[in-house]
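ok so i was messing around last nite and threw this chain in just to see what happens. nothing serious, just curious
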Amino acid sequence: MELIESNCLNGLTASEGKAMSVIEKITIFHRLGLHLRAGAELARVANRFKSDIYVSNGYRQVNAKSLLDLLTLGAIYGTVLEFSAEGEDASRAIQAIRELIYTWKEKNNF
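result:
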């Protein structure tokens, strides 16, 4: 059973020195969803980047750099989250978030 599914919607690249925008949807298939420890890991990764990074559950969009904001999404098993980043390192930010979520798959086989 897969833990997540990823679907890249839009990757807009810009010339050097200009802002880039990336949007990607990732489905959470962790039985605990985006809980406190996972949210803290996600916020820690997001804070490594200069880009503005947001997460949306379709009803609410929050700052991915804020643990409290992430927890308000109520992302349970099967929730599709849309990650968006805008800035010079947006592509690397989304890639790092995707890689983090993939590590949850390896840690949480059930």
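not much to say yet. Strands lie at 4-12, 20-28, 52-56, 61-63, 80-87.
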